[in-house]
Design brief:
Order of helices and strands: HEHHEEHHHHHHH
CATH topology of the largest domain: Four Helix Bundle (Hemerythrin (Met), subunit A)
Structural class: mainly alpha
CATH architecture of the largest domain: Up-down Bundle
Strand order of the largest sheet: 1-3-2
Shape: globular
Helix content: 55-70%
CATH class of the largest domain: Mainly Alpha
Distance between the termini: 49 Å
Length: 239
């Protein structure tokens, strides 16, 4: 009797290389979500992602599980991984959480304000305006989320910053599903007003502006169920 064929083992790679590939997959998927290139409900096939990033199924699965832990990906038994589809209830909870932590983030950011940080914020605002002027919707969406992450980084509060990074990715999915208009929901003018208040070290005004900004984003949402189209991953992540 012929011996049974043994299953092929995945090629061994150094731990650092594996960690780097997992990070690349996570960042690629997250950026595609932030730029609204990956739609809620999109199937995330392990083999296809592995081909795009030159990674084993084990590494792809690790990256998807990490994203699932953050609520960005949903993993369904016997079906695989999909870009998460937040419900209207999820949307309300995400923005409630952002309203709770982002004023505190601004408060801490003002305590840590420096000329270098103000220069970084001004440069970021310039990049947002340039994206708006050239009609680059994808860049505008990504930069809008990055503004909030930049303020969180400036605050020096690593716990809040970690929470907010997850909430921003979830917010991007929510905006994609439920926005009423095609224009960016997170306006550059609002960000400029927040930066002005930070520059003046006016905590009351800065926190009030951040709350108003978040409420306006949520008010622009039409919170009902929506359907997502199917996309080829190679067209999105391989771009």
């Amino acid at each position: 009797m012929a011996p049974k064929a043994q299953p092929k083992s995945e090629p061994a790679i150094a731990p650092d290389q594996g960690s780097d590939r997992v990070s690349r997959i996570r960042e690629g998927v997250t950026t595609a979500i932030l730029e609204h290139r990956l739609l809620p409900g999109t199937k995330l096939g392990e083999d296809e992602i592995g081909e795009i990033y030159g990674a084993s199924r084990t590494l792809v699965r690790t990256a998807l599980q990490q994203l699932a832990h953050e609520g960005i990906v949903a993993i369904e038994k016997n079906r695989g991984a999909f870009v998460a589809r937040p419900t209207p209830a999820d949307a309300r909870q995400v923005f409630e959480a952002r309203r709770l932590i982002e004023p505190s983030i601004v408060d801490h950011a003002i305590d840590a304000v420096s000329s270098d940080w103000l220069d970084r914020l001004q440069q970021h605002l310039a990049e947002e305006r340039e994206a708006e002027q050239r009609g680059d919707a994808r860049a505008s969406v990504r930069l809008s989320g990055e503004f909030h992450r930049l303020v969180a980084e400036m605050s020096g509060h690593s716990i809040y910053a970690g929470f907010l990074k997850e909430l921003i990715a979830r917010s991007s999915l929510i905006i994609l599903l439920y926005r009423r208009h095609d224009r960016p929901a997170c306006g550059t003018s609002h960000h400029a007003e927040i930066v002005t208040a930070i520059r003046k070290k006016d905590k009351v005004q800065a926190c009030a502006l951040m709350l108003s900004h978040l409420r306006e984003i949520e008010a622009e949402l039409f919170l009902k169920e929506s359907a997502a189209d199917e996309l080829r991953l190679a067209d999105v992540l391989g771009a």
